[in-house]
Write a structure and sequence with these properties.
It is a single chain. The protein has two domains: 89 residues, RNA polymerase II/Efflux pump adaptor protein, barrel-sandwich hybrid domain (OB fold (Dihydrolipoamide Acetyltransferase, E2P), Beta Barrel); 215 residues, Chloramphenicol Acetyltransferase, CATH 3.30.559.10. It has eight helices and 18 strands. A hairpin with a 2-residue loop joins strand 17 and strand 18. Helix 5 crosses helix 6. The longest helix has 18 residues.
């Protein structure tokens, strides 16, 4: 018996996912519990394991974008399969697969010949763009027309611009860019597309302003040098700058609560807790896992939670719940060498802190020039909710806590 592998529902409002990679090959034998593939949504990566033992058939290749509920593969428990299949082919053509599962029972779209039933995403595109689907050769399961087939030029019936119905407006230009020699066109991942969408949304929906200050990081650097070895030996985690910034940010947020608030229409939502998002750069893009309820946490608990989330981010194991919510965000561009930046808000939050590279600079200290280890601090905030006074006051408090870390009640 053949068992379908479906693109899973990975969260509310998410209608499409993409196949990040298959970990098995078509025709390969799999066991119940084996990891088959990784699905990427615009928020997280989800692993799909086999519920059955048998032979795997891959119907959608790596990189394919598919609607929720679409069949991406099958496990046939009546076939043993080979231990090491040679390759992972794309979806079989109906003429070469007599034992393929029956075609979709969805009613065909008008103008589509028998045996070329489109998938849900393709049906929508056909209806919107007035495409003559009878001229398109489907490459999906049982000849199903996929959304990708509609993006390919059709030699049998090229469609003129005047014949096409106008599609819904998008962020992209109306005409595709003409590529030159040396250019490569690569589709955005769902995660990168979502990042782009949210950044534009933040710019369009909030009155973003950035204010700056600087902090002498010498006291924290000295404290870390004195205690980092003992701290790690005792607690099993390193003593990083991020725990100082997280702890100091919470103390400053307590004093300026509007920076920890958000807008909902004409209402202000004040948060009496501190869920701090930590922006992390990964190979696939920027993600912002959230350290929950930081208020009562000490340095040890903060470091352990940050380390756990960092490992998940590195291994693409962050769940949607790991990145949902958050009342304030910290972005550390300093790890890449950034000296100064203006971070963009993470909606619906009203504040984001940018920390930067620590650099020795000459400073005037009580009438004398001294070399100090300085860091620029940047707070981007929604000016609709936070006045300049509140933003500046927040940074003044933050600077004070960083330059006097003994106020942060650190455990050694």
């Amino acid at each position: 018996m053949k068992h379908n592998i479906l693109a899973p529902s990975v969260g509310e409002s998410i209608t499409e996912v993409s196949i990040l990679k298959w970990t098995k090959k078509s025709g390969q034998a799999v066991k119940s519990g084996d990891l088959l593939l990784e699905i990427e949504s615009d928020k997280a990566t989800v692993e799909i394991v086999s519920e059955f033992a048998g032979s795997l058939t891959i119907l959608q290749p790596d990189g394919a974008r598919i609607p929720i509920g679409e069949i991406v593969g099958e496990v046939d428990d009546s076939v043993t399969g080979s231990a090491d299949a040679p390759s992972a082919p794309t979806a079989p053509h109906p003429a070469s697969s007599a034992s393929a599962a029956p075609a979709s029972t969805v009613a065909p779209t008008s103008g589509i010949s028998s045996g070329f039933t489109p998938g849900p995403a393709a049906r929508k595109a056909i209806a919107e763009q007035g495409i003559d689907a009878s001229k398109i050769s489907g490459t999906g399961k049982d000849g199903r027309i996929t959304k990708g087939d509609l993006l390919q030029p059709s030699p049998q019936a090229p469609q003129s611009v005047s014949q096409a119905k106008p599609s819904a407006p998008t962020h992209a230009a109306t005409a595709p860019m003409i590529l030159k020699e040396g250019d490569r066109r690569v589709p955005m991942s769902n995660l990168r597309a979502r990042i782009a969408e949210r950044l534009v949304q933040a710019q369009h929906t909030a009155a973003i302003l950035t204010t700056f200050n600087e902090a002498d990081m010498g006291p924290i650097m000295l404290l870390r040098t004195q205690h980092k070895d003992t701290f790690k030996a005792k607690h099993g985690v390193p003593l990083s700058f991020m725990s100082f910034f997280t702890r100091a940010s919470v103390e400053a947020l307590k004093l300026v609560p509007e920076v920890n608030a958000g807008l909902d229409g004409r209402d202000i939502i004040y948060h009496d807790y501190y869920d701090i998002g930590i922006a992390v750069g990964t190979e696939r893009g920027l993600v912002v896992p959230v350290v929950r309820n930081v208020g009562p946490l000490g340095f040890v608990e903060i470091e352990k939670k940050i380390a756990e989330l960092a490992v998940k981010a590195r291994d693409s194991k962050l769940s949607i719940s790991d990145m949902s919510g958050g009342t304030f965000t910290i972005s550390n561009g300093g790890v890449y060498g950034s000296l100064l930046s203006t971070p963009i808000l993470n909606p619906p939050q009203s504040g984001i802190l940018g920390m930067h590279k620590i650099q020795e600079r000459p400073m005037a200290i009580q009438g004398k020039i001294e070399i100090r280890s300085m860091m620029y601090l940047a707070l981007s905030y929604d000016h609709r909710l936070i006045d300049g006074k509140g933003a500046v006051t927040f940074l003044v408090h933050l600077k004070d806590f960083l330059e006097h870390p003994e106020k942060l009640r650190m455990e050694y």
